[in-house]
Amino acid sequence: MVVTIVGLSRLLDGPSLWIVAVLLFAAMALGIRQVLAEGAPAYAPVRLDASIVPAVLAAGMVGAVRLVPLGVGLIPTIGIAWLALDLAARLEARVFDRPSGTTPEDRTALLITGLAAAFVSFAGAASLVAGGLADPEATSGTPITEAGIVAIAITDGAIAALIGYRLASTRLAGARDALWAAATYAAAVAIAAGLLRVIAMPRLAFPALLTLVFYLWDTLRGTAPSLRRDPRFIWQSVLLTVLGVAVVAWNLGLRGS
Known about the structure:
Blueprint: H1 2-9, H2 16-37, H3 52-64, H4 74-97, H5 104-127, H6 146-169, H7 175-198, H8 205-222, H9 225-228, H10 231-256
Helix pairs in contact: 1-3, 1-4, 2-3, 3-4, 3-5, 4-5, 5-6, 5-8, 6-7, 7-8, 8-10
């Protein structure tokens, strides 16, 4: 049903798409909780964060599917969307059913799924804003407004907060600590989104760099202080940061030439 709604939303336009995305987020979150609760003992209630990543992914697809032109190309796109949602739901079910708790392998799988959901949602949010995704090769189009940039930054911050909360909840014991961590994810990504959109990063480079920022922040927060001093960790972080800066500088150089 969720995939069908995503496909039909391609026929819509305007503010109604935001409403569809929000309602789809709520429907997917409730649906995942219902599926996980079936057969679960009463003493093992379904945690609220277990439904976050599939719900964010479903809502992000409402915008991301608009990047595909109307036509036959939508068929494989809908198939990929169904597969991605199914994998995310199966992962949460596997983590929920594990009596020993979340394993390192589960955390890695959740991180990969969360990064995929973040990329899709960052791209989807930008596509729902007029002029949200810059296209340097386009000769005409609607330029983005300051309100549009603010809307993208706020939405991307909310996406980062939700996914960040899910990832932090696997490492931290209390909900308060996870909420604080989610706030830091939101701030880091919202600031990056505003800056990257102001300099008009082209098309999918924008959500890709935002996903990189999210990953770097998660790596920083999820690494023990002793490991942060490890030369390998430092060099990996520096290399990823330099790569992101190089992509930004390269695009700015192309635009100025």
